[in-house]
Specification:
- With 213 residues, this protein is mainly α.
- 76% of the residues lie in helices and 2% in strands.
- It folds into 2 domains: 1-46, Orthogonal Bundle (Arc Repressor Mutant, subunit A), CATH 1.10.10; 50-194, Tetracycline Repressor, domain 2.
- The chain has a two-stranded antiparallel sheet.
Length: 213
Amino acid sequence: MSASARRSVLLGAAFRVIAAEGMSGATTRAIVAEADMSLASFHYAFTSRDAMLRELIGHVIENQAVAAFESLRFGADIRTAIRDGLQAFFAVVVADPGHERVMFELMQYALRTPELAALPKEQYAGYRFAVGALLETAAADTGATWLLPIDDVARMVVVITDGITLAWLADHDTAAANRVIEFAATSLAGLARPAGTGRAVHPLISAARSETP
């Protein structure tokens, strides 16, 4: 087995162990047992468990973005495109809630581990990058123009999706989550100018511009 194939198997095993046992149960021995490998094989692929966790976060973020893109179908206007994007994301959450629990658990573990202190920032930068690409595609497909920097809008979307995810994991109220999605789509659409319009600037944009030196 190549080193890259070995890493892939171990990453999948680590994810399953964390989903079932939490971070406290995700020892190196538990991970190699799940992968049906030896400890020597683990250390051939990764220098440490924390090095593996760093790669796991990047791997899962990339796969999550791909899943959202594959299920996404943009609408004819920017509000519909945003709503469809949020619904595509939420569908991924509902289909595999364990996935989101693992991601939150990994972030909390990293925040408490000095050697991994930079990981949460990298994790959320990855989220914003993926969302930013989605927002650019939505604008291009609908002919809209974002009136704030893409990274600012992406940050808002990530905050919204985090809130939707945590609330749904707590109460599994899908109807309530969909109402939040509709509200968020309307609010975020106000940060874009549709094609061929001279619509007034959204209050959030006016406030941001007034604070710019």
